[in-house]
Design a protein that fits this description.
By secondary structure, the protein is α/β, with parallel strands linked by helices. The chain has eleven helices and ten strands. The C terminus is likely disordered. This is Glycosyltransferase.
Length: 311
């Protein structure tokens, strides 16, 4: 990515570069060219000391970043390129992350950028949700990056819901068609695509893979979770959900209908989980989201040295 980033900076002449935390080329090229940069921390996984017990992995990662810096960054720089020394925007809050550690940076928790985010409802049959008033509705989804991996887990989740007919109903996102043709019934509705953010306004719980987007969207609505992390940052995010008291963790590869069902029973019927989810919701909404992030970026840009402009 480095040549393209360098060309874009040269062509646009920005006051500030905003670099996603996982795309370190943005940070390293900006530091080499002397342009201030801000880190956009779109997942909270880097805010925890998740590799404290893995010194070999930590050393390997540090070595990779050091070699990248020698090739495309400023070899004299010493800061962690995943955290801008000027500004790091964390799209979460401490109420979810729990205790956090970061290198030297101006860390700003702005919460999720969800206020204006709406997925088109399309042809979603909203009337299905009205067929059983008073029955808790559950969203079951494994996101968009796990389409081929979740057939067994989705099937066991559906079985857990159907074992609770009259108590639970579920909307299931199955973009890969792993469940086959499942006709709409009184307790399960399977769709390839869902208007997820709008749907969450009517859910009592979410069963998911602990992807950061799905977790923050659920908690933005005060909805507790059953999390079954698969890979990447998902185990860290799942631990944060449990630590916040806003959900129950199950094993993706092993959990069957009994374990998933028991976890659903807990988050739907025990008020502590919903209370914790609502505490996170309130913190998210108070943090300011995309508007707060823009304000911090404007302040950084205004302070950036630009030829011919008074400081």
């Amino acid at each position: 990515m480095a040549p393209g980033v360098a060309a874009a900076i040269a062509a646009f002449g920005p006051d500030v570069v905003v670099a996603d935390q996982q795309t370190v080329a943005g940070a390293l090229v900006a530091e080499r060219l002397g342009v201030p940069f801000a880190t956009s921390s779109t997942t909270s996984a880097e805010l925890t000391d998740s590799m404290a017990g893995l010194p070999g992995v930590h050393s390997w990662l540090t070595g990779l970043l050091g070699e990248l810096r020698r090739r495309i960054g400023d070899p004299a720089a010493t800061h962690d390129p995943r955290f801008s020394p000027a500004l790091t925007l964390a799209f979460t809050t401490p109420e979810l992350t729990g205790p956090y550690t970061t290198p030297d940076t101006d860390l700003r928790f702005v919460g999720p950028a969800l206020a204006a985010r709406r997925t088109a409802a399309g042809d979603f049959p909203w009337q299905w949700l009205d067929l059983a008033p008073g029955t808790a509705a559950v969203l079951i989804t494994l996101g968009t990056a796990n389409t081929d991996a979740g057939g067994r887990f989705l099937a066991e989740s559906v079985a857990a819901v159907r074992a609770r007919t009259g108590q639970l109903r579920a909307v299931v996102c199955d973009p890969g068609g792993l469940l086959g043709t499942v006709p709409p019934g009184p307790d399960v509705l399977v769709r390839a695509q869902l208007p997820q953010v709008a749907l969450l306004e009517r859910m009592s719980a979410v069963v998911c893979h602990a992807g950061h987007n799905t977790v923050t969207e659920a908690l933005w609505h005060g909805v507790p979770l059953v999390v079954a992390p698969i890979r990447d940052d998902q185990p860290v995010v799942a631990a944060q959900v449990v630590g916040a008291g806003a959900g129950v963790r199950v094993k993706f590869a092993r959990a069957g209908r009994e374990r998933i069902g028991a976890a659903l029973d807990a988050v739907v019927t025990e008020p502590g989980y919903r209370d914790a989810a609502r505490r996170v919701r309130d913190a998210f909404r108070a943090a300011g989201g995309e508007s707060a992030a823009a304000t911090h970026l404007e302040k950084l840009a205004a302070a950036a040295p630009v030829a011919g402009r008074p400081r």
